[in-house]
Write a structure and sequence with these properties.
Length: 371
């Protein structure tokens, strides 16, 4: 399955936890950026007809609907002449209107991913988000009325001031909204976000000292796994849960190493060609992409290592096709099985429940560094 990723790094505000290459950027840059995207999509010699499309951000839901239409029109496979199996737009709660949702549907979008992160006002205020639980519920109704029924909600475990009680309230709202997909991410602490930098510096801004301890965050995650399973959202990847048939088809290609092309700032691509398997990325910033929309870094892929550290993210695990698959990493695999982080049933290798919580340690065995 091949796909297209389009990066739209513009936001109304920069959230404290966000470590993506996005933010509040000049309006005039946005116009130039869309024109650069449109030209790149029209000029490429498509190696295949994409089966999935993903608008990521940033906040692509704040994009002008005509701009979205023009970008999607430049990608082969759009309905009604052909039909992508999935076309997703990431949306910030409060940016969805009936007119926008209907325009998205007409343009070929059939899936929306809502960056909710929390349904609790105190937690939202700490991050800079302005929506409420009721706004999210209304957004879900608007999307469904427009014919977009494949809807996902994101939550973050580990936000400042989060408690077991507040986490349970957010999960209650997931059940109430009855979306067929949810993503649960454990807070990432690194110097690419304001909150992460403050935590690393032992500071107090952005609620850094009110971030729950690691063991509590792990508890929140495990509670989510159990609660979501009860309402039919099974974990199919470390951070992703869905009813059967509602898994993110686009994101699955990343973990299954299927080809995709990325357009826009900091977008990545993966292709298999006659001269090997290659990965590349675009300029990190919107201004940098406008100045040079060509790939700035192209490196050969490592098929064997990638097969392990990407494939093991999936709940289905990794089918070991022959002895060579195992032999390359036998010592590490056996050690992790002994530690209770991996399990092998004679055919498939998987992370255990404990291994999921320590997955970065396991993945480092295959890439040589933590990921």
């Amino acid at each position: 399955m091949s796909g297209v990723y389009i990066s739209y790094p513009f936001c109304a505000q920069k959230c404290t936890y966000c470590n993506f290459a996005s933010g509040v950027l000049p309006r005039e840059l946005e116009s130039s950026y869309v024109e650069t995207l449109r030209a790149a999509l029209r000029e490429i010699a498509w190696p295949w007809t994409p089966e999935t499309v993903y608008f990521g951000g940033g906040t692509p839901s704040q994009m002008d609907s005509d701009a979205i239409e023009s970008l999607l029109a430049a990608i082969p496979g759009r309905p009604p002449s052909e039909k992508w199996s999935e076309a997703t737009i990431e949306a910030a709660p409060g940016t969805i209107t009936r007119d926008r949702a209907e325009a998205w549907r007409r343009a070929g979008i059939n899936r929306a991913s809502l960056g909710v992160q929390s349904f609790v006002q105190r937690e939202l205020a700490r991050t800079g988000r302005k929506h409420t639980a009721e706004i999210v519920e209304s957004d879900v109704r608007i999307l469904r009325a427009a014919g977009i029924h494949s809807i996902s909600i994101d939550l973050i475990a580990g936000l400042p001031d989060q408690t077991h009680e507040s986490w349970s309230r957010s999960l209650d709202w997931i059940e109430r909204c009855e979306t067929p997909h949810a993503s649960v991410y454990m807070l990432e602490v690194d110097d690419d976000s304001r909150l992460g930098r403050e935590i690393l510096l032992n500071g107090s801004r952005y609620g850094a000292r009110e971030v729950p301890p690691d063991d509590a965050i792990a508890d929140f995650y495990e509670i989510a796994v159990e609660r979501l399973a009860r309402v039919g959202l099974a974990r199919y990847e470390i951070s992703n849960f869905a009813r059967q048939g509602f898994e993110s088809r686009h994101n699955l290609k990343y973990w299954r190493r299927e080809p995709y092309l990325g357009f826009g700032a900091d977008a990545h691509s993966f292709m298999v060609s006659d001269d090997g398997e290659w990965r590349w990325r675009n300029a990190e910033s919107a201004a940098g992409y406008v100045a040079n929309p060509s790939a700035i870094e192209r490196t050969p892929a490592d098929p064997l290592a990638e097969r392990f550290f990407l494939g093991l993210r999936l709940a289905e695990g990794l089918a070991l096709k022959d002895a060579g698959d195992w032999a390359a990493f036998e010592e590490s695999i056996q050690r992790r099985i002994a530690e209770g982080l991996l399990e092998f049933d004679g055919n498939r290798l998987r992370l255990t429940n404990r291994g999921v919580l320590l997955s970065n340690e396991v993945f480092a065995d295959f890439v040589g560094v933590a990921v």
